[in-house]
């Protein structure tokens, strides 16, 4: 890792997670001098923002970081936290990226004469190209309603949750039913805690269907190769992930089953007032929509099996195990002895350091497979940057290879590259 900054680099990578490391891997392969700025530590989200029982949701074979495929003996299993960290640490050592940790990038700006200036807490450099790898998960998103909760209620975002013993005795409200929320609610439920689950619009997916992991079927169907440019896919980058789990060998997460076992379910949270959480009357709709996606995915698999005359166990359709008899409008936190709230409400991006006109009206970078409309500016690691796996171990490497290939061609072909003579190795 470098101790001193050079004045100029051919490329600057912002972010030292799996996307930034993948970019560095290919930049090194192409002999392009570069530096990686990381605000905290390399791959810190895997190390510092996961709960103790965390495990992969997708099978291990989908771990396909560049030149670093899954190297264990259980490709159809689901690595637990320590195994994931081992896999990531081996990748970190293999890449040996030129990273400056604990270095905040304060601004990225285009120079009038061409090229870019990158100002960081470690100093300012110029560069011919920039790869932005800071993802959409920069800041935990917690609704303002959290400010209205009583001071004696422990509140934390999913990034800070580790295990049930971390929380005081009493009931727990989990707000948000995406992957993290559903898995943490199960973690608490299995520990015997009283859980109140506030649902949202997250879809769900079967773990196993017709004799195989659903992910294996979907790979055969070609779902992981569909790009964001296919009809109807452009909005996918804003979708909530399907909830299911790889825990204990993998299983469905069915909120209706949890309800039968004593978990209390609610519609979307609309606010907090006078010690009560208030909810929209959409619990049934949320559950029905999640099941509709579940059955729709299975129907896609049925179609594939029929079309290819595959011998497989018979098809089935999920039927609700439980139906809400009412739509709870409120939850009195004191009456229900709620002592903790887990905010599984996602994240917001932080592009404030980027002083370049590359964003659309929603604040999402305008790009095509990581290539923006400004020559020399790239983004990596975003959900549905190109395919379903773009933000994950499965395809972030493929996207990085594409981006660095484009970047290499740009550096080699442009006659207007302002620092061409100063850049080493070009």
Summarize the amount of helix as a percent range: 10-25%
What is the fourth-level CATH superfamily of the largest domain? FAD/NAD(P)-binding domain
Q: Just name the CATH architecture of the largest domain.
A: 3-Layer(bba) Sandwich
The CATH topology of the largest domain is FAD/NAD(P)-binding domain
Overall SS class: alpha/beta
Number of domains as seen in the coordinates: 2
Describe the 3D structure.
This protein is 24% helix and 20% strand. The protein is built from eight helices and 25 strands. The protein has a five-stranded parallel β-sheet with strand order 6-3-2-10-25, covered by helices on one side. It has a five-stranded parallel β-sheet with strand order 12-21-13-14-17. It has a four-stranded mixed β-sheet with strand order 1-9-8-7, with no helix packed on it. The chain is globular, with a radius of gyration of 23 Å. The relative contact order is 0.18.
